[in-house]
Amino acid sequence: MEDCLNTSVVEFYNATAGSYDQLYRDEQFLKYAFLQEKNLLGGFKRVLDAGCGTALLFEYMTGKGAVDFMVYVCLDASEGMIKEALSKVRDPRFIPIVAFIEETPVVDEYFDVAYSITVWDNLEDKRKSLSELKRVAHVVVVSQHHKSTSPTPASIDPSFQEIGFRVDRFFVYTRGGK
User: Fold this and answer.
1) Terminal alpha carbon distance of the chain
2) Overall pTM surpassing 0.85 (yes/no)
3) What is the pLDDT of residues 45-69, one digit of tens each?
4) Statement: residue 8 has pLDDT above 90
5) Kindly report the CA angle at 142 between 161 and 144, in degrees rounded to 5?
6) Does 1 fall in a domain?
């Protein structure tokens, strides 16, 4: 697992997990509102939040009534972030997993949607991450910080289409191109 992500990045998120929501909630909620405007929140039964952090997306979705999911998997490489998420979420549909996106421990095509918001620049192997997300989900939503110097998801995998900008640039893949 440590080969996939710089250990110092995981250590940073472990150390800052307790203050993450206070620092980033408003910014993250702006991004989620953009996804809601694009009809990319709600209507999915099996949700993967890849790089879920403290479960802010779960908080946003449940607060906006986008709760038709039966399973919500919160996957993050930071055990500290997962612990913080568990301290605030009390929902039997919420399943936390400590793992890297590059090694998503899920069967093929299980999820209706996979979100990977504000994670792109922390991924060690971006190509493998996109491949894993596409392997496990029918729809994949990835955001990339607008000041990022990393290659875009679309430049690595042309099946991802840029859909717009709100704090981050957003890219979507849909199985079958629909």
Assistant:
1) 34
2) yes
3) 999 999 999 999 999 999 999 999 9
4) no
5) 95
6) no
Name the amino acid, one letter, at 143: S
Could you tell me if residue 94 is inside a domain?
Answer: yes
Residue 97 inside a domain? The answer is yes
- On whether residue 102 sits in a domain, the answer given is yes
Tell me which DSSP letter residue 47 carries.
E
Report the distance separating Cα 56 and Cα 28, nearest Å. Answer: 7
In the prediction, which pLDDT does 178 show? 57
Domain enclosing residue 168, as ranges: 7-177
Short-list 13, 8, 11, CA closest to 23: 13
Task: Return the pLDDT at 1.
Answer: 42
Residue 14, pLDDT above cutoff 60: yes
CATH code, domain carrying 98: 3.40.50.150
Q: How far apart are CA 104 and CA 34, in angstroms?
A: 26
Sign of CA dihedral 86, 92, 94, 95: positive
